[in-house]
Amino acid sequence: MSNLLKRCIFGLLYGAVVFCGLYFEKAFAPLMIVLGCMAMAEFNRMASGGNTPRVAEFASYLAFFIVFGTVLLSSIGEMSPRYFVLGLIPVLAIPASAVFSRAYRQNLDSLVWMMAGLVYIALPICLSPLLVYGSGEFNGLLMLGITFIIWLSDIGAYAIGTLLGQKSTSRKLAPEISPKKSWWGFAGALIFGIGTAAALKALGVFGFSYVHCLVLGALTSAAGVLGDLVESVFKRHFGLKDSGNVIPGHGGILDRIDSPLVAIPVAGLYLFIAGLL
């Protein structure tokens, strides 16, 4: 099987899983939890070289579960949001583990990276229930629409970047981080992202005005590119090409959600500030 065919098949399968997770309420929480845990595991392996402190890693997952569950339940009115502070207990257990374990003190960098992973991966995912339950009832169309903007802008970046951005005269976006990314690709991401947002408005997926849709499309696309570059910084620092190999032809889960980790919080923040959420 060629690599292109493999990428297409597994890319479609991954897309179908995400679609189901955002469209069907019962699949939403399991999808977010699985993606979050797998991405955190990949990030921890990258940071520790495979020698992840197990007790501290368990504490990081526990913190993720507590905060995600609290935000989810508070979004549907089943729990007070103040209980999210319970998630701080396992977070504090991560650095505290170094006090009681010499092995952990010798692996202190991994503990620091693990806490960074909570901010980088777990926190954005924990905010996702606010988007799908913003009206008090489950509605995954908004987050699904934002996800489509990210996917289509990525296609636009690749298409226009490949067509126009690989010439010797083309200016690179961040050559020391990702040598192949160009400003042409960034322009392609914006064009496709804005166009996708306008199309979603015309199809009735987005209920706010065209102006907000265009701004949302631009912000989401730009933030998606930034998210991709942020992960590239981490991978370059750790000397890795991919975060994992769980999706044949695509790499790891973190390689798939690197753009949404930045784009979805940015989109949500804009919608909140604009009074649309």
Q: What separation lies between the terminal Cα atoms?
A: 45 Å
Uncertain segments of ≥5 residues (pLDDT<50)?
none
Tell me the number of strands.
2
Task: Characterize the biggest β-sheet.
Answer: 2 strands, antiparallel
Total domains: 1
Largest sheet strand order: 1-2
Would you mind describing this structure in some detail?
This protein is mainly alpha-helical and 277 residues long. The chain has one domain (3-273). Helix content is 73%, strand content 3%. It is built from 11 helices and 2 strands. It has a two-stranded antiparallel sheet. Helix 1 (3-23) packs across helix 2 (25-48) and helix 2 runs antiparallel to helix 6. The longest helix is centred in the C-terminal third of the chain and has 29 residues, at 210-238. It is globular and about 55 Å long.
Q: Which features does this protein show?
A:
277 residues, mainly alpha, two-stranded antiparallel sheet, globular
Q: What's the structural blueprint in terms of helices and strands?
A:
Blueprint: H1 3-23, H2 25-48, H3 54-75, H4 88-100, H5 102-106, H6 108-126, H7 128-132, H8 141-164, E1 172-174, E2 178-182, H9 183-202, H10 210-238, H11 253-273
Antiparallel strand pairs: 1-2
Helix pairs in contact: 1-2, 2-3, 2-6, 3-4, 3-6, 4-6, 6-11, 8-9, 8-10, 8-11, 9-10, 10-11
Brief summary:
By secondary structure, this protein is mainly alpha-helical. Helices cover about 75% and strands about 5% of the residues. The protein has one domain (about 5-275).
